[in-house]
Amino acid sequence: MLPRAPSLRRYVRTDALQRLMLDINAAQNADQKAPAEPAPPVSRSDAALRGQTLRGDVQLPMELQEAVNSIIEAADKPAIRLSALDLYAQLRATTAILPPPSSYKDKQALMRNYDATTSVAFLAGLMPSIYAATLQALTTTRDRLKVVSDWEPDRVIDYGSGTGSAAWVVEKVWGATKRDGQQREYVGLDASETMVELSSSILGALTTRVGEPQYDGAAKEVARISAKAYQLPIPASSSSLAKLQLGPKTSLPATGKKTLALSAFTLGEMGTKEKRRELVRAMWESGAEVIVIVDRGTPGGSRMVIEAREQLLKYGKQSLELDEEWEGEKLWERGAFVVAPELEWPRIVNSPVKSSGHVVFDMCAASGDIERHIIPKSQGRQAYYDARKASRGDSFPHPPKNGSTLVNLPQEKAVDKFGKGRSKLQSKKALRSSPRYDPEGDEKREKKRGRKEGVKGVNLDEIMRKHFEE
Q1: Over 50: is that where the pLDDT of 301 sits?
Q2: Do the beta carbons of residue 404 and residue 371 sit within 8 Å?
Q3: Which residue(s) pair with 183 in the sheet?
Q4: Does the bond joining 3 to the residue before it have cis omega, within 30 degrees of 0?
């Protein structure tokens, strides 16, 4: 008789059953293929990098700060303060697109005369912002030119150089020496004698930099850019440039120097449209390979830059007889480049709203309208990544997936003595119709009030607050 088989247990522990199921699942998964590799990381596209603006605060070079501080300390600070207030008032009065002046008096009102006090006030109050804007423009110029050529300027001619701060910008962007080891040149031209004297004293600080001490204790000399300033009527004629051996009509043999013509905030100093056109024509006839024009981002300043750009493009079409067979590098050999924003790319005017799964932009479109663009995550990894990394002031290359919508901007209101809630246009009309309207008397009273109360209510730059405190 066979022995009886042992009976199976009726109950099985729960943890043992779970371990059994895990073993079964592991055996099934082992027969399957390995999971797919993760997608490669995404970086910013070349187009997004070209549209990127400078980030953070711009620091003035130490030598420039020390030179400015020494000049301010030796000046009459109350007089500089009043001159700075006048400069700010004139800038505020010319932000809009103004009609052409109808009389000689109106033309003279648009022209600024720079005496010694006004020049120092310009140096302290406006030079830092001009330095930052010029740095942004020339950095963009360098990055855009890298797309088509390895061109770098051997010499920069600054029309309306003012305090000469562009010399430090050129040295920061392209370096003090050329590829062959020779010094890069900066030539500043300005019509004001006091401005030329001031810029010459500041440019003298370019020769004071020394390097780190070497192992023998001696300091290593650091090459600096060669910078000079000349008094010359603006716009400068070809014959005037030839006397300084700068223009194409110079009597010296051709040196083969690559020249960049710069106009930083000079168009706004020209009293009439005819003067601005003469300046642009003089820059074109100077023989410069690259022309860069910078001005204020106001309606009036933008209109001036657009008109200058159209004028330069017209000169280019006339001289090159542009057609389909002249493309790419052939154009580089035959004429000058106009470095201007890529108009098909809208510019971000407000801080982006970065939510989960999408980014919202307020854009200034090529049409001049403010549009709202939404870049969702479903538009693609590249577009969404570029949108997450974009900031205010950048040009964004990706169009929105679902189209754009117009943004209705609220009308700016002004509260004045004729009633609250009026628009600026209504306030101006009410002011002119008032029997007590006296612009000259109001200006005198404002100056008198400024002498008594100081700079109450005026937001000056950091350098003004630092050096002009009583």
Answers
A1: yes
A2: yes
A3: 177
A4: no
Distance of CA 310 to the CA centre of its chain: 20
Residue indicated by tokens 């930099």: 209
Tokens standing for residue 310? 């159209």
Dihedral over Cα of 75, 78, 82, 84: its sign: positive
The residue written with tokens 């962007």 in the block is 173
Closest by CA position to 120, among listed 79, 62, 90: 79
Q: What is the structure's pLDDT at 387?
A: 94
Could you give the CA distance from residue 163 to residue 190 in angstroms, rounded to a whole number?
9
Angle 146-148-152 from CA coordinates, rounded to 5°: 50
pTM of this structure: 0.69
| Residue 407 structure tokens | 């943004």
Could you give the CA distance from residue 270 to residue 192 in angstroms, rounded to a whole number?
Answer: 13
Other CB atoms within 10 A of residue 373 CB: 23
362 pLDDT higher than 50: yes
Question: Would you state the torsion angle of the CA atoms of residues 182, 183, 184, 186, taken in this order, to the nearest 10 degrees?
Answer: -150
Would you state the pLDDT for residue 147?
74
Give the residue, 54 or 46, on which the prediction is more confident: 46
Please return the burial class of 9, using the count of CB atoms within 10 Å of its CB with bins 0-12, 13-18 and 19+. Answer: exposed
Sign of dihedral through CA atoms 6, 7, 13, 14? positive
Torsion sign across C-alpha atoms 305, 306, 311, 316: positive
Distance CA 217, CA 18 (A): 76
Partners of 53 in beta bridges:
none
**Tokens coding 321:** 């007889």
Contacts of 286 (CB under 8 A, 6+ apart): 157, 236, 238, 241, 246, 247, 248, 259, 261
The angle formed by the CA atoms of residues 202, 205 and 209, to the nearest 5 degrees, is 160
The pLDDT assigned to 263 comes to 93
The CA distance from 316 to 353, in Å, is: 41
Band of residue 446 on the pLDDT scale cut at 50, 70, 90? low
Token duo for residue 60: 């003035």
